[in-house]
Amino acid sequence: MDGGDDYDDTQAFDALEKDFQRVLDELTGDDTLQKFRGEYSRLFDALKKAQANERRLVKKIREQNTEAMANAAKVASALRISEDDDSNIEALRKQVERAYAMVEAANAKEEAAQTTVERLQADVEQLNGVVKRYTGLLGEDNTLEDVMEARDAFKRRYDEAADAAKYERQRADDLLSRLEARKEKLKEQRALVSELRAQLQSREEEEAREAGRQARLRAEVDKVKDTLSRREREAAELEREYQRAVTDAEAMQDKIEGLQDLAQTTANQMTLATKDRLAYKKKAEEAERRIADLQRETARQRDEARRAKQESARVDAEKRRVLAKLAAAETVEASLRRQIADHKSEAATVRAAFTEKEKEAETGTRALGQAQNQVSRLEHAVRQEAERVRIEATRKMEAEEAAAETEAAAKRTESELEKYARVNADLNKKLFALDRVVSALKRRILDLEAARSEAADTVKAREAQVKEAEKREAAAEGRLRQQKTLYDEVRNERNRYSKKLIASRDENTELRRKIRTKTRQAEQLELDNAAKDRTLVAVRFDSKTSSKKLEDKAREADELRGALVKAQREVQQLRAVVAELNAAVKRMDAEAAEQRRTAGKLVNERDMVGMQLIRRNDEVALLHEKIDIMESTLKKGAAQYSERLEDMRVLKLKVGDLRRQLVTANTAAGRVESLQRQIVQLQRELMAERTKTKALAEELENPMNVHRWRRLEGSDPSTYELVQKVQTLQRRLISKTQEAVEKEVAIQEKERLYAELKELLARQPGPEMAQRLAAFQKALRERTRQMRAMASELNMSQAQVEEYRFEVTRLEHDLTDARKRFYETRRRQALAGQRAAASAAAGSEAGLGGTAPAGSSAAVASETGARLAATQVKQAQAAAPRFVGGGFNTRMGSGPRGASTSAAGSVPSFEASALGAAGPAASGMGGPAE
């Protein structure tokens, strides 16, 4: 259909060109019409150029429409293959924004085409002016009115379309402003508002400087426009004078009719172009509706991503519960193994004194029952304390999620742990008393071995629970691997879309400033998500630290269980399993950190693209302002054009009156010569009659013959007749004289008008004024091109500065990460040194218990163990504040991490002190037996 229209337009233009060439050929033979021939040649060249520009713009608009449809198809295909992940949703959102930017670019190009159409319309109006000028000279008022009515109708249709487009654009701006107002409320609650304000201030300063430069450029453009306006007024004045001077334009009637046909054809072409523009605008609106659908689909994808995050949080909670159960199982296992060690030491003591204590078997049986009951009560108390510890740990994790109560919760946990240490010390003292009671039991070796086997069964049951927990952990790891696989797929998809984004970055460098507010809001939301991600990372880091502390406690407990080889092997096996799990968790955490770094880089790239989009939107706003200025100038020109048309109408009326007077005068002037000849003839006749009368009078006075009185055949007229005849001739002479005077006055007036017209023609300039106007237009175009080049260079420099800023920010983030890793390494080294010191202290304590002389008493050993335990408690208490104060990082001791670390770091020391106190006592119990 479009091709058929183009073919029809080409045929019409070719026919018009042939007619114009025929008219020029007709004008070639007459030298007096050479100036008209040059003028019409320039007009036709301008029309040809306008036709070529119109075709080029229509072709460009069609290409942009095709490109917009292709981009919409790409967006649809991207939505069909989208997955339930944040990164994929972000990529789709970027694709939607790119499609929206392409639609905006198409709209901007359409507006540029509209500007070109308006310029062509101005050319057509100029041609209409020429047609009207010559039509006015020929008295073709009806044709001029028809052309003006057609022009007014076209202008009304154009104004209606422009008003509709303006209303749609204003409605879109209102929607965007409401969306901006809602998102600004969220923006005010974010933690990075100061940095954003600083960036905004710097951006505003840059925009102020840019506005100053634009104001200066606009002032220069206004000066040039004023100069052009003066030149146009002068040209209009000269044109009016030229119109008054043209009196012999009747021979140009056919040529003017050809120009009228040309103007009508051009008006039809403009109407078709307007229809095409409206069709393109409808397509753009449809694309905007599709973009709105895509945005709703994106919102749905975001909801699904939020549900996926909730599922991930649930998996993390399940993991924490499994770790808590594992820690509780290790605590119970440690208690059982301590009981086994006690029972074995008791068995050795009973075997040594078996021969001496047979008589006390019955009493020992009762005491053993009481001891077993008390041991059961103590085990129940230990389980209750372990449950309380787990509850407190859960509360601690909840407190870590609420950042305002973290430090207080850590302090409460530390105080609870100290209380638990004191309870453990009391329990150890009670166990020492029970050891002294059980040492009297000599005959109950078999019962004790049965109790040991029962404890072994309990350990097996606990091991079964640990295996079940491992299975649950393996299932959680499987889900985590599945999530990781999905994340890798989404990341690959995101990388592919990032490449596409880089490929289309050149296309989006022109017109993007219109959605600056939405981009800033999206950046704020992304910053909020990043803050939440950092909070989640902190929580995971605390969980990781807690797991490391649990691992440290397990290792310290294992170091204190060196007495039992079999139990040590079992504990080592369990510890190996836990170490594998922790290694897997570390690997996953490392991978998550790598992915977060990658996400940070992508966010930086996204921010750079957003900044470029903002700058392009600023350029689009500037272009819109220029278009508004041009439209106002065009409206002023239209008003002036209407005034000139009114002046032309008045002047045409005057020219018609003068022409009628000239025709009358010419007609009268044609009769002057005949009247003069009649006057001369009558004067001659009068002179002859006077001469004859005089001769007759003289002859009458002096007769020459005597026969003069004879009767003649004729008769003389009477005196009355002669008097009447003389009076008639006198009246005729007077009237003719008056007519001659009037004709002479009219001839003088025509000569005066002819002199004035001659003077006006002498003052009228030639083609020099048109050449000067063309030179001014060329200078204006050159200045506009220079301004655009300067604006492009400025945008490029701003983009480079923003890239440098983002690079500096990225390097600062890398430096911060390196510092964090350095401080973490130093903290681990410090923890390793503390564990080595604790191991050395435990070894020295074991040596003291093993090399005690046979004559030392249980009281001395107990006192020594108590002193060592007190010393270790003091060392742990002294070391805990120093670690909280932070020789490594000042932020570690003031936040939740520092508090939890100090609390967890003090727990192994308390347990070591309690176990150390139990160790020497047990070894002391064996002294007398040996």
TrEMBL record:
Descriptive protein name: Cilia- and flagella-associated protein 58 central coiled coil domain-containing protein
Organism: Cafeteria roenbergensis
UniProt keyword Coiled coil, yes or no: yes
Top-rank lineage group of the source organism: Eukaryota
Cellular component GO terms held in the UniProt record: cytoskeleton
UniProtKB keywords: Coiled coil
Pfam families: CFAP58_CC
Coiled coil: 665-699
Chain segments carrying region Disordered: 292-315, 884-907
Classification via InterPro entries: CFAP58_CC
Domain Cilia- and flagella-associated protein 58 central coiled coil: 406-661
